[in-house]
Amino acid sequence: MTAEDSAFAVLGVLGDPVRRRLYRHVASTPGEVGRDAAAEAVGVSRSLAAHHLDKLVEAGLLEVSFRRLSGRAGPGAGRPAKLYRRAEGEHAVSVPPRSYDAAGRMLAEVVEKAGLDRELQAAARAAGAADPEAAAGRLEEVLEARGYQPFRDGGTLRLRNCPFHALADEFPALVCGMNLALLEGMADEEWTAAMDPCPGGCCVSLSKNN
Protein backbone atom coordinates (compact mmCIF):
# COMPACT_ATOMS: atom_id res chain seq x y z
CA MET A 1 0.00 0.00 0.00
CA THR A 2 1.38 3.42 -0.95
CA ALA A 3 1.54 6.37 1.45
CA GLU A 4 -1.37 7.93 -0.43
CA ASP A 5 -3.42 4.73 -0.10
CA SER A 6 -2.68 4.65 3.64
CA ALA A 7 -3.80 8.25 4.03
CA PHE A 8 -7.01 7.54 2.13
CA ALA A 9 -7.67 4.52 4.36
CA VAL A 10 -7.11 6.54 7.55
CA LEU A 11 -9.33 9.41 6.46
CA GLY A 12 -11.93 6.97 5.17
CA VAL A 13 -12.47 5.91 8.78
CA LEU A 14 -13.98 9.37 9.35
CA GLY A 15 -16.70 8.73 6.77
CA ASP A 16 -19.08 7.67 9.53
CA PRO A 17 -20.82 10.77 11.00
CA VAL A 18 -20.78 9.44 14.59
CA ARG A 19 -17.09 8.69 14.28
CA ARG A 20 -16.44 12.20 12.98
CA ARG A 21 -18.28 13.76 15.93
CA LEU A 22 -16.37 11.61 18.39
CA TYR A 23 -13.04 12.47 16.81
CA ARG A 24 -13.82 16.20 16.82
CA HIS A 25 -14.86 16.05 20.46
CA VAL A 26 -11.74 14.19 21.62
CA ALA A 27 -9.40 16.23 19.42
CA SER A 28 -10.74 19.55 20.68
CA THR A 29 -10.86 18.60 24.38
CA PRO A 30 -7.82 19.46 26.54
CA GLY A 31 -6.53 16.36 28.26
CA GLU A 32 -8.03 12.90 27.93
CA VAL A 33 -11.64 11.82 27.37
CA GLY A 34 -13.36 8.72 28.78
CA ARG A 35 -15.99 6.66 27.00
CA ASP A 36 -18.87 7.91 29.14
CA ALA A 37 -18.02 11.57 28.56
CA ALA A 38 -17.52 11.04 24.83
CA ALA A 39 -20.82 9.19 24.49
CA GLU A 40 -22.69 11.93 26.35
CA ALA A 41 -21.04 14.67 24.29
CA VAL A 42 -22.20 13.27 20.94
CA GLY A 43 -25.48 11.76 22.13
CA VAL A 44 -24.88 8.03 21.60
CA SER A 45 -24.73 4.98 23.85
CA ARG A 46 -21.52 4.11 25.71
CA SER A 47 -21.13 0.83 23.78
CA LEU A 48 -21.49 2.57 20.41
CA ALA A 49 -19.03 5.27 21.45
CA ALA A 50 -16.54 2.62 22.61
CA HIS A 51 -16.79 0.81 19.26
CA HIS A 52 -16.13 3.95 17.21
CA LEU A 53 -13.42 5.27 19.53
CA ASP A 54 -11.50 2.02 19.22
CA LYS A 55 -11.84 2.18 15.41
CA LEU A 56 -10.26 5.64 15.54
CA VAL A 57 -7.43 4.20 17.65
CA GLU A 58 -6.88 1.40 15.11
CA ALA A 59 -6.64 4.03 12.36
CA GLY A 60 -4.00 5.98 14.27
CA LEU A 61 -6.21 9.02 14.79
CA LEU A 62 -6.52 8.63 18.57
CA GLU A 63 -4.24 7.28 21.30
CA VAL A 64 -5.19 5.42 24.47
CA SER A 65 -4.10 5.48 28.10
CA PHE A 66 -5.49 3.83 31.23
CA ARG A 67 -6.03 5.64 34.53
CA ARG A 68 -8.27 5.33 37.59
CA LEU A 69 -10.50 8.39 37.49
CA SER A 70 -11.19 8.14 41.24
CA GLY A 71 -7.54 8.80 41.99
CA ARG A 72 -7.51 5.88 44.44
CA ALA A 73 -5.15 2.90 44.29
CA GLY A 74 -5.09 -0.60 45.71
CA PRO A 75 -7.89 -3.12 46.35
CA GLY A 76 -11.38 -1.74 45.82
CA ALA A 77 -10.17 1.17 43.70
CA GLY A 78 -11.80 -0.29 40.60
CA ARG A 79 -10.45 -0.93 37.13
CA PRO A 80 -8.54 1.82 35.32
CA ALA A 81 -10.67 3.69 32.79
CA LYS A 82 -9.78 3.67 29.10
CA LEU A 83 -9.05 7.26 28.07
CA TYR A 84 -8.61 8.75 24.61
CA ARG A 85 -6.65 11.69 23.25
CA ARG A 86 -5.78 12.98 19.81
CA ALA A 87 -2.82 11.19 18.20
CA GLU A 88 0.25 13.26 17.38
CA GLY A 89 0.56 12.15 13.75
CA GLU A 90 -0.76 14.10 10.77
CA HIS A 91 -2.83 12.77 7.86
CA ALA A 92 -3.40 14.69 4.65
CA VAL A 93 -4.73 13.76 1.22
CA SER A 94 -4.69 15.85 -1.94
CA VAL A 95 -6.37 14.81 -5.18
CA PRO A 96 -4.40 15.01 -7.40
CA PRO A 97 -1.28 14.78 -5.17
CA ARG A 98 0.29 18.10 -4.19
CA SER A 99 3.44 18.94 -2.20
CA TYR A 100 2.72 22.19 -0.39
CA ASP A 101 4.67 20.99 2.65
CA ALA A 102 7.87 20.71 0.60
CA ALA A 103 7.32 24.19 -0.83
CA GLY A 104 6.67 25.53 2.67
CA ARG A 105 9.93 24.06 3.98
CA MET A 106 11.94 25.54 1.11
CA LEU A 107 10.35 28.97 1.54
CA ALA A 108 10.92 28.90 5.30
CA GLU A 109 14.57 27.93 4.82
CA VAL A 110 15.13 30.81 2.38
CA VAL A 111 13.43 33.35 4.66
CA GLU A 112 15.39 32.14 7.69
CA LYS A 113 18.75 32.19 5.90
CA ALA A 114 18.05 35.65 4.47
CA GLY A 115 17.15 37.02 7.91
CA LEU A 116 13.72 38.18 6.76
CA ASP A 117 11.95 37.41 10.04
CA ARG A 118 10.67 40.97 10.50
CA GLU A 119 9.36 41.16 6.96
CA LEU A 120 7.54 37.84 7.39
CA GLN A 121 6.02 38.98 10.69
CA ALA A 122 4.87 42.26 9.14
CA ALA A 123 3.19 40.36 6.30
CA ALA A 124 1.57 37.94 8.76
CA ARG A 125 0.30 40.77 10.98
CA ALA A 126 -1.19 42.54 7.97
CA ALA A 127 -2.83 39.32 6.78
CA GLY A 128 -4.38 38.78 10.21
CA ALA A 129 -5.68 42.34 10.41
CA ALA A 130 -7.22 41.97 6.95
CA ASP A 131 -9.37 38.99 7.95
CA PRO A 132 -12.95 40.34 7.78
CA GLU A 133 -14.40 37.72 10.15
CA ALA A 134 -11.84 38.48 12.86
CA ALA A 135 -12.37 42.21 12.35
CA ALA A 136 -16.11 41.64 12.88
CA GLY A 137 -15.46 40.29 16.39
CA ARG A 138 -15.75 36.59 15.50
CA LEU A 139 -12.20 35.68 16.49
CA GLU A 140 -13.01 32.30 18.05
CA GLU A 141 -14.95 31.23 14.94
CA VAL A 142 -12.00 32.24 12.75
CA LEU A 143 -9.53 30.34 14.92
CA GLU A 144 -11.75 27.24 14.82
CA ALA A 145 -12.05 27.45 11.03
CA ARG A 146 -8.26 27.78 10.69
CA GLY A 147 -7.66 24.63 12.75
CA TYR A 148 -6.40 26.15 16.01
CA GLN A 149 -9.06 24.36 18.10
CA PRO A 150 -9.49 27.20 20.63
CA PHE A 151 -10.83 26.62 24.14
CA ARG A 152 -11.46 28.89 27.12
CA ASP A 153 -9.24 28.64 30.18
CA GLY A 154 -10.68 31.30 32.45
CA GLY A 155 -9.88 34.63 30.83
CA THR A 156 -7.40 33.00 28.45
CA LEU A 157 -8.11 31.60 25.02
CA ARG A 158 -5.77 28.64 24.48
CA LEU A 159 -5.17 26.88 21.18
CA ARG A 160 -5.25 23.09 21.25
CA ASN A 161 -3.70 22.66 17.80
CA CYS A 162 -0.88 24.29 15.83
CA PRO A 163 -1.85 24.53 12.12
CA PHE A 164 1.85 24.97 11.27
CA HIS A 165 3.09 22.07 13.41
CA ALA A 166 5.50 20.45 10.92
CA LEU A 167 7.14 23.76 9.95
CA ALA A 168 7.21 24.96 13.57
CA ASP A 169 9.14 21.83 14.55
CA GLU A 170 11.74 22.50 11.85
CA PHE A 171 11.87 26.32 12.04
CA PRO A 172 10.53 27.15 15.54
CA ALA A 173 11.71 30.76 15.90
CA LEU A 174 10.68 31.73 12.38
CA VAL A 175 7.27 30.04 12.32
CA CYS A 176 6.27 30.79 15.91
CA GLY A 177 7.17 34.45 15.38
CA MET A 178 5.06 34.49 12.22
CA ASN A 179 2.19 32.80 14.05
CA LEU A 180 2.30 35.31 16.91
CA ALA A 181 2.23 38.21 14.44
CA LEU A 182 -0.68 36.65 12.54
CA LEU A 183 -2.72 36.27 15.73
CA GLU A 184 -1.77 39.78 16.89
CA GLY A 185 -3.22 41.05 13.63
CA MET A 186 -6.39 38.99 14.04
CA ALA A 187 -6.95 39.90 17.70
CA ASP A 188 -9.45 42.70 18.21
CA GLU A 189 -9.49 45.15 21.11
CA GLU A 190 -10.91 42.40 23.32
CA TRP A 191 -7.81 40.14 23.16
CA THR A 192 -4.02 40.32 23.45
CA ALA A 193 -1.85 37.61 21.85
CA ALA A 194 1.35 36.45 23.55
CA MET A 195 3.80 33.57 23.51
CA ASP A 196 2.33 31.11 26.01
CA PRO A 197 2.56 27.51 24.76
CA CYS A 198 -0.28 25.09 25.34
CA PRO A 199 1.15 21.59 26.03
CA GLY A 200 0.90 19.66 22.79
CA GLY A 201 -0.72 22.66 21.08
CA CYS A 202 0.00 26.15 19.78
CA CYS A 203 2.79 28.40 21.07
CA VAL A 204 0.45 31.39 21.37
CA SER A 205 -2.48 32.14 23.68
CA LEU A 206 -4.81 35.11 23.82
CA SER A 207 -5.70 36.89 27.04
CA LYS A 208 -8.90 38.85 27.44
CA ASN A 209 -8.35 42.55 28.04
CA ASN A 210 -10.06 44.14 31.04
Helices and strands in order:
Layout: H1 3-12, H2 17-28, E1 33-34, H3 35-42, H4 46-58, E2 62-67, E3 81-86, H5 100-113, H6 117-129, H7 132-135, H8 139-145, E4 150-153, E5 156-159, H9 165-170, H10 172-186, E6 191-195, E7 204-208
Antiparallel strand pairs: 1-3, 2-3, 4-5, 5-7, 6-7
Protein name: Helix-turn-helix domain-containing protein
Organism: Streptomyces fragilis
Pfam family, one: HTH_20
What does this structure look like?
The protein is an alpha+beta fold. It has helices at residues 3-12, 17-28, 35-42, 46-58, 100-113, 117-129, 132-135, 139-145, 165-170, 172-186; strands spanning 33-34, 62-67, 81-86, 150-153, 156-159, 191-195, 204-208. The protein folds into two domains: 3-86, Orthogonal Bundle (Arc Repressor Mutant, subunit A), CATH 1.10.10.10; 100-208, no CATH class. It is built from ten helices and seven strands. Strands 4-5-7-6 form a four-stranded antiparallel sheet. The chain has a three-stranded antiparallel sheet with strand order 1-3-2. InterPro entries: ArsR-like_HTH, WH-like_DNA-bd_sf, WH_DNA-bd_sf. This is Helix-turn-helix domain-containing protein.
